[in-house]
């Protein structure tokens, strides 16, 4: 967590944008910067809460994706596609999880060239414990009422779809 500032630096930047004559972009700049700042804060909080489980958010996401998969396994390419991350990032995270015995890397029986990530019982246990902890300390503890949470989620979903994040 960072130090509390006496004034909102994004509001200050917005005022500077307007003073420079960039009125038509000031609100967009403030929105983009606010979302990026909130992302930084949420990621730091989530990673802090996951630290006792020896997980990062990236590692947690992979475990949960495998937990939600039909058979507890997915090709690495499918993991990258679903999490929308670069293949090298998937390989790195999967290897770290395998090193900790939270998943296994196995040859894909349907395609001898690709690898499947398969969650282990220890990985399932870690994912379950971490999820219960995150549900209590982060996901159910946001500084917004439930109606605002779903309204913001709906608006951001519209933006994500407009950017081509999904069909």
Walkthrough of the structure:
The chain is built from seven helices and three strands. With 167 residues, it is mostly helical. The chain folds into two domains: 1-53; 55-132, Winged helix-like DNA-binding domain superfamily/Winged helix DNA-binding domain (Arc Repressor Mutant, subunit A). The protein has a three-stranded antiparallel β-sheet. The longest helix is centred in the N-terminal third of the chain and has 28 residues, at 23-50. It is elongated and about 60 Å long.
Outline the fold blueprint.
Layout: H1 9-19, H2 23-50, H3 57-68, E1 73-75, H4 76-83, H5 87-99, E2 103-108, E3 111-119, H6 121-139, H7 146-162
Antiparallel strand pairs: 1-3, 2-3
């Amino acid at each position: 967590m960072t130090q509390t500032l006496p004034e909102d630096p994004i509001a200050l930047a917005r005022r500077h944008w307007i003073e420079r004559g960039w009125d038509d972009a000031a609100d967009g700049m403030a929105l983009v910067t606010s979302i990026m700042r909130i992302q930084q804060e949420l990621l730091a909080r989530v990673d802090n809460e996951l630290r006792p489980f020896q997980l990062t958010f990236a590692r947690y996401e992979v475990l949960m994706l495998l937990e939600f998969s039909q058979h507890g396994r997915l090709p690495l390419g499918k993991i990258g596609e679903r999490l929308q991350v670069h293949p090298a990032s998937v390989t790195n995270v999967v290897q770290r999880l395998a090193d900790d015995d939270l998943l296994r890397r196995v040859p894909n029986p349907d395609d001898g060239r690709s690898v499947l990530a398969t969650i282990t019982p220890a990985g399932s246990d870690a994912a379950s414990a971490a999820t219960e902890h995150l549900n209590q300390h982060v996901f159910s503890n946001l500084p917004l009422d439930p109606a605002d949470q779903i309204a913001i989620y709906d608006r951001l979903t519209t933006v994500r779809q407009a950017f081509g994040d999904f069909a």
